[in-house]
Amino acid sequence: MNAPLIIFFVLAVLAVIGAVSLILQKHPIHSALSLIVVMVALAGLYLLLGAEFVAAVQIIVYGGAIMVLFVFVIMLLNAGEEERTDFSKLAKFGGLPLALALTGLLAATMTKHGASLPNPGTAGTLAPTADLSTALFTTFVYPFELTSFLILVAIMGALVLAQREKS
Amino acid sequence: MSSLISNLNSALSGAAGYWLLTFLKVVLLLFIVLTVNAYLTWFERKVVAFMQTRVGPHRVGPHGLLQPAADGLKFLFKEDAMPAGVDKFVYLLAPFLALTLSLASLAVIPFGPKPLPFAFFGGHQINLWITNPDIGLLILFAVTALGVYGVALAGWASNSKYPLLGGLRSSAQMVSYELALTMSVVGVVLMANTFSLSRIIEAQSGRTLWGILPAWNVWSFHSGFPQIVGFFCFLTAAIAETNRVPFDLPEAESELVAGFHTEYSSFKFAMFFIAEYTSMITVSCLCTILFFGGWTSPFADSWTFTHYLPSAILIPFGLWVIYDGLKYETIFGRVALPGIGTALAAIGALLLAGIWIQPLQEANEFIQAPFWFLAKVFLFLFFYVWTRGTLPRFRYDQLMNIGWKLLLPVSIVNVIVTAAFVLYRSGK
Hints:
- The structure holds 2 protein chains of 2 kinds.
- Chain A has helices at residues 3-24, 28-48, 52-77, 89-113, 129-137, 141-166.
- Chain A is built from 6 helices and no strands.
- Helix content of chain A is 77%, strand content 0%.
- By secondary structure, chain A is mainly alpha-helical.
- Chain B has a domain at 74-296 and 357-427.
- In chain B, strands 1-2 form a two-stranded antiparallel ribbon.
- Chain B is globular.
- The interface between A and B is medium-sized, with 27 and 31 residues.
């Protein structure tokens, strides 16, 4: 057991516990807090893979901006504890087998093709942010610009919806 | 004895020694920062008092110098009341989050360029920072982004209307100003080509305007466009982000009692208090690093006599403290103040003796960078207090207008102009 492996297991367990608690918590704020734990643990995993820029952005965008909006809306609506309804029929009977099937599929793929997957970088070395931005602005410039256009359209859509409500 | 030291050195030279060293540095930094925090409250009360022609704290210790200790003790011994119906876990988590995150951001601040000139800890370099990652600036923003939760959750968990309103206000305010805060530093990042705080400082180490001024980002054309507009956007947004006057609406006492921390008492209140003052220190460090050249001296390298400026400040100040202390009204003051003054003057004299004594000369050279860094940080802390003593609080709609309709567009224009200049420079 070397240090990166120990950190990986700590973060992975943290992420899984956060995800389970997200579903099981009764209060929306507690669920939101669990989701933040998942986001931060994922950022730690990215950092472990050497993707420092992605890790920081994960915390800034998901852990910060988006989850703050979640918490903000929950606070604003003053949402109370949820009443637990019965699980849907599909989840009751299909849930466990489907989850097992997905896990099995992933595990099978990993064991079969794991060696041929591109190595994301050896632990301890960091991919410089400059390399990432060079790739984004040269090789992947069209997908990058298209994505930003998509986000712009979404912002315009939000504005239009907010305006309509006012008048 | 010497064999014991060499044994110790070899034991500490491995990875374990490095971790121990980092741990000790963290403890030392926490100790320093918490002490500075305590005396920052004293400084703030004194300065605001003088602005309002009052005396300020002067009962506990000479010139009220022991007031922070008294306040700390009071916080510790007060009844720790928890209101009925609170969400216990979140209620306790909130002050913990606020304090931890604000203290964590100090870990990436570099206080000086060079490691200590002597190695005694198993041969490890002892740098003047806890860690200096390539994405230092992004880590700071990540920590700031999470910092909202401390305030928002405190307001929500208190199960009371005023904290809830304060928490809502503050999360809205911090989310709004985070945009302007991030946009306003993009210009600096464009010019320095890096997110590393130490390299941002190194990029400003030259001279500009025929060598008259240091090449600090705030006024220099040397690598792009002067970031004076970016600086003002950053400073305004940062004051709003730390919930300080004139943007302290989350705790507007005339409307909301004490805002998000109304229901917190005893040391849990102190934790919010310490978190706020630590954020002030972090923001002052960031202003210094991003716009005012960090640890670089404002004087040219050839002006070696400016290296004795620390002595030139310490010796007269120490002598004045001795003079002031000798005629102080209490006996304790007549002993303590001259003692402090003598210590300050002695440090100044030792540094000045570097003119003749070689090791002291090296020590004097070493403290130049931290001296300038801390001097600039101190100026920004004074600015914080100054604005608190001067400006009235904004109205809530004014606050939102400033954030969204003024700071954000202006900082975006600043990014575009800076990008154009950087492009023009790199094309040449």
